[in-house]
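All the exercises in this workshop are built on plain-text protein records. A learned vocabulary of local backbone shapes supplies the integers on the structure line. Once this layout is familiar, the rest of the handout is easier to follow. An example says more than a description, so a record of this kind follows:
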Amino acid sequence: MSIAAVVLMSGLLVYGFVLANQVFSKNTKFAERELYVYVPTGSTYEDVKKIVAPFVENMNRFEKVAYKRSYPENVKPGRFLFTKGMNSYDLVRALRSNVPVKLAFNNQERLENFAGRVGSQIEPDSLMLLNTFKDSIFLKENGFTNDNVLVMFIPNTYEVYWNISAEKFRDKMIKEYRNFWNKERIGKAAKQGLTPIEATILASIVHKESVKKDERPRIAGVYLNRIRLGMPLQADPTVIFAIKKKANDFDQVIKRVFYNDLTMSSSYNTYVNIGLPPGPIAMPDITALEAVLNPEKNNFIYFCASVDRFGYHEFAATLPEHNKNAKKYSDWINSQGVKR
């Protein structure tokens, strides 16, 4: 072999070693086992470099691989997983694999709370989401109002991409709503004299009345009995909601409703208004929805919190019986010094 050939071969070996070092040697500098990086919609390659720089040990090596892999011309927004010890090739490849978010929500009291909860998990912020949910054309097309649109969101865990738009997220939620309200559930609601929206509003009251899932069908049965009799629902949770709404303070904790509260003027006060309030007072979970669709058949008209079984209620078919239960609870709560 000639000297020139040996020199060329040596040069190729050196180049190959340098190239392999650039591509396949460890190129991260974070202590965590794994972390996610977020590339906002509309980001350029220069933006991405700033985003990943705190986590990349040698940006020159990263950039050489990025250019060889044509990444600068193909930047994609999303949520991307970096793991400790990745090399430059792995990092660039990771930036091409958008990892979905498992988005979970439940027990949100208002649409604003819901938008905030979701906005903390995906790219659109709470204001963008709220404006999209309240879009007048969308509401009209789907039979919702500003007061009741919260019924559209069925508590669960959903898989979405972090960079999903507010409109696409809303469209996914209306699709999930329609999937939930299948022919069977619509039929069950109709059997109780309710539409899906009305059933959800009632379920929100049932949800707030009891955390005991096994008791919810009985409570739903009581409220449906009252509706059939033309009685006011007389649901304390609706009064609590009305108090919070009037004060525009949903952070306050209200453990006790007083007689004067029952006379306040509000469309959510079910002591002075017959029928359901204009919208849900919370986001009911699926067990509360199913309780309304599959209520216990009973002759109870009244119930109040139980002193003997914490978290449960005492039920009554007659007013004298209820008054006895109510006095027992009132005496107990007074003894505990609960003022509000």
Summary: The chain is about 45% helix and 10% strand. The beta strands are 34-39, 78-83, 101-105, 156-160, 302-305, 313-316. The first strand starts at residue 34 and ends at 39.
